[in-house]
Write a structure and sequence with these properties.
Layout lengths: L25 E5 L10 E3 L2 H8 L8 H10 L5 E5 L5 E5 L9 E3 L11 E6 L2 E11 L4 E4 L13 E5 L5 E5 L5 E7 L9 E7 L4 E3 L10 E3 L11 E8 L2 E13 L4 E4 L14 E5 L1 E7 L2 E9 L9 H5 L5 E5 L8 E4 L12 H5 L21 E3 L11 E3 L24 E3 L7 H18 L3 E4 L10 H8 L7 E5 L2 E4 L7 E4 L2 H14 L16 E2 L5 H9 L2 E7 L3 E5 L13 H17 L10 H20 L8 H4 E6 L8 E7 L8 E7 L4 E5 L5 E2 L2 E2 L1
Parallel strand pairs: 1-3, 1-23, 23-26, 26-27, 27-31
Antiparallel strand pairs: 2-3, 4-9, 5-8, 6-7, 6-9, 7-8, 10-11, 11-21, 12-19, 12-22, 13-18, 14-17, 15-16, 15-18, 16-17, 19-20, 24-25, 28-29, 28-30, 31-32, 33-34, 34-35, 35-36, 37-38
Helix pairs in contact: 1-2, 2-7
Protein name: Phage tail sheath protein
Family: Belongs to the myoviridae tail sheath protein family.
């Protein structure tokens, strides 16, 4: 392209600056009261966690770990809820006459301490599994089957996680609306639904304008919309004739209503017709308190307030219209919810990234923001199942009785036992988590010691920690005790990973990832399982165990900052996390270079941007050195530029001025790679 002689000025957008990134965002893979399953959700506050995943529960540690994180100063985390998948089978007829046992088509997935739901027609009842006999496929229940269940007929039986449900019926008992809790869990058994008449609109036909059976002229149309179900009535000779019609079209100019089908012949079109719309309002209660109201719903699919579509925005329920009949006024309680904790396996918590089993921790494979991983329920102590008997019905003749609408039937609520894993299964799962973090290269995993009947000895902790060797693994011990929000005056033992994740976030916010997250007092922590002596602490520290100690006047304080690496170069947690920070910054902010022309201009631009990042890190204390050139060095390798390769060798002094850890940034025609190269030392621009 030719240009006239002279000065040409072009404004070109510069490449994006290399800005700091966050490496303090953890993910908790845990048991929660409610919420989506195996789906990472970003949580920005403790109240938001409560809205999505519910509150504290006896058979899960999710809420406890997340509260500990936010109480230490955590800002953002990811949460993945895990459950045992639902298992469906049938009870073969005829059933044992004792009614306390059932012969199932298969007992796979049924475990002692789990809740199971038995359904037969409209009857739904939940029982606790007391025994399982695989040889005879017999399951023993905690109480006899309900008298309404016919043991001479087949029944559907389900265990694992399940959603509570109920059915609202229309006039004459016809099915109207099937209701389910928004997610699995026994929390749904505390949900009630009240159906009541909604707003009404009434008008009359115009006697001076005779319509047809397909359309009716009326005095007013302002309250009518397509899909409205209208009660059409007519008085005559001491009787009232009633028909039902659905609005197909409304002409607001001529005030004419068109019907989706012809009006019946019993209506005399020469006489006045009374038109009245009807709607249904649904009120959702949880534990007796109103939490949602959905007014003026219709059950006609064409209506703009069609119930399933409108209620889809609910955080508590999901509804499916069985027909077009509106439910009659009623109050029902959802039943059949199951937590699915007793049958949990370590595979439910860990999944398998390699095989594509996106469950538990494996569902986080695509979450780039994640930098810390914790799975507290992997080591949780088992909790017993609980059966809450239904409250007795109120005495209508009592002197203090209050007339109120109550659900027709109340069922027992069964809470699953907590998950329990063998120590070898826990270690196998923890190794899988460590390997996952090593593959991703930008995450660390916080490992808690397995639960034991009594606090573990130092020898037991050392034996457990010795089974891992990785700079991406941090062992946190001992367990902590906290005041349990579920009961006044009661404490609960917790693994310390939630507290340490919060301490990491607090330290990063104040100082940066190059500062060890230790030597600060923990909040919402009131005791330790084991109070190590100074000598025991020294031994544990040498083994890479981060010990939480009770210090006079300071409370509980993490006193350690090592990884479980056998390589002296990576033994310190701050070194590993600083390198993760630099790797992530380079990867994210040099991605623009992939298709740039590979020449001197690219080399100068990249070198300048990376130098800015490293100098800022050095000024903030992340790199060691009296001068910037002592803290980092850069070298561009263009020896393979002809084949599309651009290599930048970055050396940084993470621990001591005399020692460098080296990163190699490689760019091909379509990919950017950042690799650690501890064997290469860069000094004054020379690699050796």
């Amino acid at each position: 392209m030719t240009r006239a002689p002279g000065l040409l000025v072009q404004l070109v957008d510069p490449p994006p600056a290399v800005e700091p990134v966050r490496v303090d965002v953890p993910a908790f893979v845990c048991v929660c009261e409610r919420g989506p399953v195996d789906e990472p959700v970003r949580i920005g506050s403790w109240p938001q966690f409560g809205l999505v995943f519910g509150g504290f529960m006896p058979n899960g540690l999710g809420a406890y770990a997340v509260k500990a994180f936010f109480d230490q100063g955590g800002r953002v985390c990811w949460v993945v809820r895990v459950v045992a998948p639902e298992v469906l089978t049938d009870a073969l007829a005829p059933q044992p006459v004792d009614r306390t046992t059932s012969r199932l088509g298969s007992v796979a997935g049924f475990v002692v301490g789990a809740a199971a739901t038995v359904r037969q027609g409209d009857e739904t009842h939940t029982y606790l599994v007391n025994a399982v006999d695989p040889s005879t496929s017999l399951v023993t229940w905690d109480r006899p089957l309900h008298p309404a269940l016919d043991t001479g007929l087949g029944m559907d039986v389900a265990t694992g996680a399940g959603q509570a449900g109920a059915r609202l019926r229309g006039p004459g008992g016809v099915p109207g609306l099937d209701v389910e809790a928004a997610s699995q869990g026994v929390w749904g058994d505390g949900v009630e639904l009240v159906s009541s008449p909604g707003a009404r609109f009434a008008t009359v036909s115009r006697t001076g304008d005779v319509g047809s059976r397909a359309a009716t002229p009326v005095h007013a149309t302002a309250g009518l919309v397509v899909g409205d179900e209208v009660r059409v009535s007519q008085e005559g000779a001491g009787t009232v004739t009633v028909a039902t019609a659905v609005v197909a079209r409304v002409d607001h100019v001529d005030r004419v209503v068109w019907w989706d089908s012809l009006l019946p012949a019993v209506l005399d079109l020469t006489l006045p017709l009374a038109l009245e719309t009807s709607s249904t309002s649904l009120t959702v209660l949880e534990r007796g308190s109103v939490v949602e109201m959905w007014p003026d719903l219709s059950f006609q699919p064409a209506h703009p307030r069609y119930a399933p579509g409108v209620v889809a925005a609910s955080t508590r329920i999901r509804v499916v219209a069985v027909g077009t009949a509106a439910p009659v006024p009623a109050r029902v309680r959802l039943t059949g919810g199951r937590d699915g904790t007793a049958a949990l396996t370590v595979d439910d918590l860990v999944g398998d990234e390699v095989l594509g089993q996106r469950r538990g921790a494996a569902s986080l494979a695509g979450t780039d923001e994640l930098a810390v991983l914790a799975v507290p329920d992997l080591v949780g102590c088992p909790t017993p199942p609980v059966v809450h008997a239904p409250p007795p019905p109120p005495d209508p003749c009592g002197p203090c009785a209050v007339a109120e609408s109550v659900p027709d039937r109340l069922e027992a609520v069964v809470v699953d036992a907590g998950a329990r894993f063998e120590t070898e299964d826990v270690v196998r799962a923890q190794r899988a988590l460590v390997e996952s973090c090593e593959r991703h290269t930008e995450r660390i995993v916080l490992l808690d010691p397995p639960c034991a009947e009594r606090p573990p000895s130092l020898a037991a902790l050392r034996a457990w920690a010795a089974r891992f060797s990785s700079s991406y693994a941090v062992a946190v011990a001992p367990w902590l005790t906290v005041v349990d929000p579920r009961a006044v005056g009661r404490v609960r033992r917790l693994p310390a990973s939630g507290h340490l994740a919060g301490m990491i976030a607090q330290t990063d916010a104040l100082d940066g990832p190059w500062r060890t997250p230790a030597n600060r007092s923990l909040t919402w922590a009131h005791g330790v399982d084991v109070d190590f002596t100074a000598e025991e602490h020294a031994i544990a520290n040498e083994d890479g165990i981060l010990v939480v100690r009770a210090l006079p006047g300071r409370g509980l304080v993490p006193m350690g900052g090592r990884t479980l690496s056998a390589d002296a170069l990576w033994v310190f947690l701050a070194v590993r996390r600083t390198m993760i920070y630099l790797r992530r910054a380079l990867r994210l902010h040099l991605a623009w270079t992939v298709f740039e022309p590979n020449g001197p201009q690219l080399a100068r631009t990249v070198e300048s941007a990376v130098a800015t990042l490293l100098e800022q890190t050095w000024e903030e204390g992340g790199l060691v050195g009296a001068k910037a050139e002592d803290a980092y060095a850069l070298q561009v390798d263009q020896s393979r530029a002809a084949t599309g390769h651009f290599v930048l060798v970055v050396g940084v002094a993470l621990a001591r001025p005399a020692e460098f850890v080296t990163a190699r940034v490689s760019r091909t025609d379509n990919r950017l790679e950042v690799a650690e190269m501890p064997e290469v030392v860069v000094r004054a621009g020379v690699a050796s």
